[in-house]
Design goal:
Elements (H helix, E strand, L loop, with lengths): L2 H23 L6 E2 L2 E3 L3 E5 L4 E4 L2 E4 L2 E4 L8 E5 L5 E5 L10 E2 L4 E2 L6 E2 L5 E3 L8 E2 L1 E3 L3 E5 L1
Parallel strand pairs: 1-6
Antiparallel strand pairs: 2-3, 3-15, 4-5, 6-7, 7-8, 8-13, 9-10, 10-11, 11-12, 14-15
Amino acid sequence: MNRREFIERSCMSCLAGLSLLPLINSCTTIHYSSNYTSDKNRIILKKSEFSIVKHNKPSSLKFVVIKSDKLEFPLVVYAAGDNSYTALYMQCTHQGCELSPHDTALVCPCHGAEFDTKGIVTTGPAEHHLKAFPTTSDHENIYIQL
């Protein structure tokens, strides 16, 4: 194989790999909750929204997304595992794009900024942390103060 063939095959392999990325990303499911209520200053989310059955086995979600009429952008609620929760506004602090939530981070599709599940900037260009809403919980619900 000469140099030209090597470069052509390498480029074709890269393009083929890139074309598979949307398929791989589509395998990740984002759970949008519709099982919540709201009053003037808070959202009440059922803790049961974090429990699902996957392949006939109970499983726990790391996060749930809420689209509220009260807010321009959705909220993502992360379960910390110690019966505490973090509610974050899904608007990037860099230029205002809607973030994509993942199990361990929120990623800005516009410029690549990343935030951890507490809303702290881990990768720029964003310089400010995400807006976090205070949360409390009881045995059944999570209360998010707006």
